[in-house]
# Entry
Amino acid sequence: MKRFHDSTSELDDDEALRNRFHLNGYLFLKGIVDRDTLLSLRRQIVSILAKSKWLKKDANPMDAIPGTAAYVEGEEQYLQVYDEIQKLEAFHALPHQLPVLNIFQKLLGNTAFPHPLSIARIVFPDNDEWSTPLHQDYPNNQGTEDLYACWIPLADCPQEHGSLSVLEGSHKFGVLPLEFALGAGHRRAVLDTPLENLEWVGGDFELGDLIIFHSLTVHRSLHNSSDRIRLSVDYRFQREQEPITEPCLQPHFQRLSWEQIYANWSSRDLAFYWRDKEYELVDWDSSMHDISQDEEIASIKETLRYDRKRKKLRASMQDSSQQDD
# Structure
């Protein structure tokens, strides 16, 4: 796989940075985010995982070595843990840090602001079928196409830990059709013939690195073949005055209210901050995710097969753990 182009040296040249982004559909930048801030957020998240008994006993919790078979988005056990992560003030404050916000202002202008929708990913190893499939963000967020995402791992993330990969230049080909796939979002972009000649690019991330990409840039996660849970966060930014959909103003999965999320924060400075912004609220189009009836039936069968496989594995791991005790 071709390596990411490192744009860190172009940070002081706004025009060069924008040109590089519009050429490739992404920017890979090193050492942008404060490492102590990321470590603190990671520490809070692994504490939640440890309390939920997701981590291996007697291991350093910061290593995030799983002590159970994979949990995935959509499962109630996963969502209960995820609710606690959504309540973390540090999680929602991260995209407002000046080093991060300044880059988006270079790309989008001074009115660039982060969506309140903040996403964390908890990716278990040895669960390749659930690796996030190739997709574009636009169908999931909609609103303006000039929506830029920022993906940040919460630890060093070499490719074997399941780092991000992008299809270089794919943002120039419009919105692609979708089909069913296992993994986050349950949809995979269907690549038209012109995109088949584009190159996938990837690389290793160190703590503090980030990647920014366009809402139409096709991207995916690589398989996590390590022995650790991959923890990452991602945020989306846009200009004021442009369209935005209601789901982008709500907590991820919409299981909690904002007041529930804010309940134990040390400061209310970021509470409902987007209400001071100017934007055009537009409808979210669910038809973008429609699939045929035959594909819907096939997706149900595939999901049931996958669920049975994981339940069997989880039962086996529990039996093994009880024998060790």
